[in-house]
Design brief:
9 strands, globular, Rossmann fold, six-stranded mixed β-sheet, three-stranded antiparallel β-sheet
């Protein structure tokens, strides 16, 4: 049986503001998200971000949420994201239902990398409908140019980038996720006002 969606208690303070121009800013962010998946694992800067998202939600994470989350996309929040100010922000600007089960989520907002569930905890799609999978928004502190070697569509030869910090054993999980293709989850890493995409099509090799 499906668990009931969570709702946010009524609050007297208004939610934090969203995009300055909701339509144009969301379009700009959406184009950046497409570019991040088309050219995996390169840090891109977002031109439009909410001015002051509720802490500890960063500017890029808030922008991705405002662009992708809506009334038809159940969202799972990790414990660090599951706080009244962030729930109010998402419910007011996105209208997205919040689910307590990672496996039921279309999107997951992960603000505590060290405590993130394994990628396999999220839905990876179905053989007939591989697009019915989860997309993870994983907030990190920074992007380091050193890291694993990435190859695949959108990468001419190879590329290296290391979001830091990451959950223990993350790259092993990412390799297992890639092996499921065309099933699997997709990941957006966000740091400050930057983002990088890791689609399931990208192969991850050992760091050299």
């Amino acid at each position: 049986m499906t668990s009931p969606a969570r709702t946010s208690p009524s609050r007297t303070a208004p939610p934090a503001p969203g995009f300055a121009d909701p339509v144009l800013d969301a379009q700009r962010c959406f184009r950046s998200l497409l570019a991040a998946l088309a050219g995996p694992m390169q840090a891109l800067s977002l031109d439009a971000c909410p001015p002051s998202p509720p802490e500890p939600l960063g500017p890029a994470a808030a922008a991705v949420a405002l662009t992708l989350f809506d009334a038809d996309t159940p969202v799972w929040l990790d414990p660090r994201a599951d706080r009244p100010e962030i729930r109010d922000f998402l419910l007011f600007h996105c209208g997205c239902p919040l689910t307590p089960e990672p496996g039921e989520a279309a999107f997951a907002l992960l603000l505590d990398p060290a405590a993130a569930p394994r990628l396999s905890a999220f839905r990876c799609g179905e053989e007939e409908y591989p697009d019915r999978s989860a997309t993870l928004v994983l907030q990190v502190d920074a992007f380091d140019p050193a890291g694993p070697v990435f190859r695949g569509p959108g990468i001419e030869t190879s590329r290296r980038l290391a979001p830091r910090p990451l959950p223990p054993g993350f790259w092993d999980q990412a390799r297992a996720n890639h092996a499921l293709y065309p099933l699997g989850v997709d990941v957006f890493f966000v740091a400050g006002a930057q983002l990088a995409g890791l689609p399931r099509t990208t192969a991850i090799e050992e760091a050299v």
